[in-house]
Write a structure and sequence with these properties.
The chain has 189 residues and is α+β, with helices and mostly antiparallel strands. 22% of the residues lie in helices and 33% in strands. It has two helices and nine strands, in the order E-E-E-E-E-E-E-E-H-E-H. A five-stranded mixed barrel has the order 1-4-5-8-6. It has a two-stranded antiparallel sheet with strand order 2-3. A hairpin with a 2-residue loop joins strand 6 and strand 7.
Length: 189
């Protein structure tokens, strides 16, 4: 069934089981974009300082909510950037579990890591990795620490976990979104 609203998509593709990732900010961009659910559009969020850009495509999993109140974040390991609003099927590789502190309040704000899947072959592109190199995880962690620091926030990496733990956290985020929608409907009724 086609979706006319990104907010109603599931985090998983029903046929393949891969992740449904929506890109907010392409690899190499200094501009951070964010999906505005109220308008159903992507909006400019902020510009990053000169010399800092996203190392990979950055997006979210629809129909999920993290502890910070936003959809779960995904870093998509791409060789070339996609574009704002691009829908990508992706294979989950793992998660960087982290706390983010802003204005004295600390929330979990994990970063899921995935690779794109080619639609026709249902496989990652040639040269994609199947397991994350600890050095790459360290570089990604340092990017998010610096990115948050420049915004006056603190990003503390708790641990890196593989796809099984990442899947548990995504299921929790999906359940949170369902609960949140029920609360909203009950408040209206």
């Amino acid at each position: 069934m086609p979706q006319s609203n990104i907010s109603h998509m599931q985090p998983f593709d029903r046929e393949s089981g891969f992740l449904n990732v929506i890109i907010e900010t392409p690899k190499g961009s200094r501009n951070k974009f964010k999906f505005d659910e109220k308008h159903g559009l992507f909006m400019f969020d902020k510009a990053m300082p000169i010399g800092q850009s996203f190392p990979f495509d950055f997006g979210f999993l629809p129909s999920t909510i993290g502890e910070d109140g936003d959809p779960l974040d995904v870093l998509l390991l791409t060789d070339e950037p996609t574009f704002v609003g691009c829908f990508v099927l992706a294979k989950l590789l793992g998660v960087i579990e982290a706390d983010q502190t802003s204005d004295g309040k600390t929330n979990r704000n994990d970063r899921f890591i995935a690779v794109p899947i080619e639609v026709k072959s249902q496989r990652p592109p040639a040269g994609s990795i199947d397991n994350l190199d600890p050095i790459l995880v360290e570089k990604i962690s340092k990017f998010f620490i610096a990115y948050n620091e420049l915004q006056g926030k603190k990003f503390k990496v708790l641990r890196f976990a593989g796809p099984e733990r990442a899947m548990e956290l995504i299921r929790e985020g999906f359940a949170n979104a369902k609960t949140d929608k029920k609360k909203a409907r009950n408040a209206i009724a």
